[in-house]
Design brief:
- The protein is of the alpha+beta class.
- It has two helices and two strands.
- The N and C termini lie far apart (50 Å).
Length: 57
Amino acid sequence: MTLHVKGRDIFVEQSHEDLYAAIDQLMDKLDRQVVRHKDRVQDHHHDSPKRSLSING
């Protein structure tokens, strides 16, 4: 499975004898990667000190 998100493509692959088990495991992997991607994207959007000073001052 490939998920296209802003700035990146997330690829996850899983196999299992039981189709539903494979889908469940794939979704777990995908969830972890999406959360990790979201954390990385949000960590880069801090307010700069100049902006916070100009707003408060």
